[in-house]
Amino acid sequence: MRNVFEKIQELEVIPGYSKHEQLVQGFINSIDEKILVKGDQLPSVNIMIRETGFARETIVKGYKELIERGIIESKRGMGYYISNTDTGQPLKLALVLYAFDSIQETFYNAFRDLLLPDIQIDVFFHHQNIDTFGSIINNISGKYGMYVVTPMPHPRTAEILKVLPLNKFLMIDRFEPMQGDFSYLTQEFEASSYRVFVELLDTIRNFDEMIFFSRPNSDLPVEIMKAFKRFVKDYNIKFQVKKEYVPGALEKGKVYFVCNDRQLWTMLKDCEAQGFKLGQDVGILAQDDDPIKEIIFGGITTYSTDFQLMAEKAAAFVLSQEKIQEVIPTVLKRRTSL
């Protein structure tokens, strides 16, 4: 390890090099010259202070930059280790999503296009499983320079997320409370859903009944159900809540509110098979917009957060690392179906 300290000291003579830059470049030079190899443990912060004479803040800042660049990783209670000898690689970012559905894909594609090739993005999916979520967060902690996470609603979520550095963390999509001052770009469900229902009231009243499909223990935000129940009560709308759409069960004179694309496609297939005119014989309101819903059957009425905008703001956060706390607006897009 003596040769590593020498590599750091060699840079003292270079004009304009700060102690922080000496430390980082010294380690990079040591890796490039094979003095350090993958798996090697780095000196502790206290040893670095003693050997270099640098301030603790300088050492910590240098190690953090090497982590952000994906060169070293921190193992809790064990110290710092060389994790990658590709010293020219870009900043590494961990992106944790629910699953790769159409909405998450919209976010990912826009986010990726704005960051590549300067940022390396590794994607993980927790599929609404709290144990999987915990395992992912535990495994990526200390190994990335930035963490962009879609959390899941669960009592353990805040405890799981606390291992991530808040200044390098961005919560997206759903908001889950946790300790500390952290950045987020999320959507709001209850007030926005209620507002959308009210905007569609006159059209909804053209139908005999409103049917909402919501499976118990699904990933559907509970705030949407609260908004729906408040709306039908406030405006005396006849309604039903069903677990799922049964193929062939489409009824004339009903307006359907669906949050699952698979069920939506089945309903549209039945609409065509039964010869129903969408928007007249039956009405459909779907959550979350995408290009297909804009054109299929003359257009499906949707309400959705702008995930393209969310991606743009998330990418800006990664590049600037300036704190952001914002709720992305929800937009109603009225089309043929309602």
Tell me about this structure.
Keywords: DNA-binding, Transcription, Transcription regulation. Pfam families: Peripla_BP_3 (PF13377). This is GntR family transcriptional regulator. With 338 residues, this protein is α/β, with parallel strands linked by helices. The chain folds into three domains: 2-82, Arc Repressor Mutant, subunit A; 91-186, Rossmann fold, CATH 3.40.50.2300; 190-305, 3-Layer(aba) Sandwich (Rossmann fold), CATH 3.40.50.2300. Helix content is 39%, strand content 20%. It is built from 13 helices and 14 strands. It has helices at residues 2-10, 19-32, 45-52, 56-68, 102-115, 130-140, 157-161, 190-199, 201-204, 222-234, 261-273, 291-295, 307-320, and strands at residues 72-75, 79-82, 91-97, 119-125, 146-149, 169-173, 183-186, 209-213, 239-242, 254-258, 283-287, 301-305, 325-327, 330-333. The chain has a six-stranded parallel beta sheet. Strand 3 (91-97), helix 5 (102-115) and strand 4 form a beta-alpha-beta unit. Helix 2 (19-32) crosses helix 4 and helix 5 packs parallel to helix 13. It is elongated, with a radius of gyration of 26 Å. It starts with a helix and ends in a 5-residue tail after the last strand. 33% of the residues are buried. The model has no long low-confidence stretch (mean pLDDT 91).
